Amino acid sequence: MATTTDTMEKATGVATLEVRGLKAEVQGKEILKGIDLTVRQGEVHALMGRNGSGNSTLANVLMGRPGYTVTQGEVRFNGEDVLGLTTDQRAQRGLFLAMQYPVEVPGVSVVNFLRTAYKAVKGDEISALAFRKHMKEKMNLLGVEDSMVQRYVNQGFSGGEKKKNEVLQLAVLEPEIAVLDETDSGLDIDSLKAVATGVQQLIGPSLGVLIITHYQRILNHITPDHIHVMMNGRIVLSGGPELAHELEKKGYEGLRAELGVEEE
């Protein structure tokens, strides 16, 4: 049965990702122990937690990556239960995941990869010329050079180039909700600023973002509307942008002790 909130969101055309009571395990070990989270189009959320808290597991479960077993709860996108959908089907609905460790695709250029992905997600036949124009607009917005899209996907790319390529994919595919899984990991100061600035360029009413990170530093460049702290497979605290600074001062251990959360 549709709730009043569901009806209002459909009427206003606001895409919404809802996670309710989500529990999941990997190889028989429970990692997610009851996650409740709502991300709407136009909002920026940051999910913070130290290694092993379950952040990346949540990202992988949301996009249906194999090897993760949901044991309880639901994930709904625009009111539809997506847990039974494949990763491709979730992408077609308007979900996107920027991976923590982008993979190399030898022999396939970035431009061909993006065009294939675009057609798979949008279901549209698009001419090479029309797609090139669309991609070029996004490249200009993000400051991506032509030489980068002629190279094979992530092959020989630096850490910063790999993450910049993920942001270009995000721009080209134009999803409604994007999950950025530790986009800041392994980046130096300059690369982090460049990647974060690219994401900031894309943020707006048509895009909702869930940033998964261990550190406050990416939030110096992207200001979230909501921050959530994850510990031991659960979201233990939520608040506004000021929560990141509180966490920076207290540290995860200090906050854990203050909240009385059991050790991970």
Describe this structure in words.
- The protein is globular.
- It is built from 9 helices and 12 strands.
- Strand 11 (226-231) and strand 12 (234-239) form a beta hairpin.
- Helix 4 packs parallel to helix 7 (159-173), helix 5 crosses helix 7 and helix 7 runs parallel beside helix 8 (189-202).
- The protein has helices spanning 4-12, 55-62, 87-93, 110-122, 128-142, 146-150, 159-173, 189-202, 242-259; strands spanning 16-26, 29-40, 44-48, 69-77, 80-81, 95-98, 105-109, 152-153, 177-181, 208-213, 226-231, 234-239.
- It has a 6-stranded mixed beta sheet with strand order 6-9-10-3-11-12, sandwiched between helices. A 4-stranded antiparallel beta sheet has the order 2-1-4-5, with helices on one face.
- The longest helix is centred in the last third of the chain and has 18 residues, at 242-259.
- With 264 residues, the chain is of the alpha/beta class.
- The chain has a single domain, classed as Rossmann fold (3-Layer(aba) Sandwich).
CATH class: Alpha Beta
Number of helices: 9
Contiguous low-pLDDT stretches (5 residues minimum) are 1-11
Radius of gyration: 18 Å
The CATH homology group name: P-loop containing nucleotide triphosphate hydrolases
CATH architecture: 3-Layer(aba) Sandwich
How far is the first residue's CA from the last residue's CA? Answer: 37 Å
Q: Say what the CATH topology is.
A: Rossmann fold
SSE topology string: HEEEHEEHEEHHHEHEHEEEH
> Strand portion, in percent?
25-35%
Give the helix level as a range of percent.
Answer: 25-40%
Largest sheet: 6 strands, mixed
Mean pLDDT score, rounded?
91
**Judging from the principal axes of the Cα atoms, what is the shape?**
globular
Structural class: alpha/beta
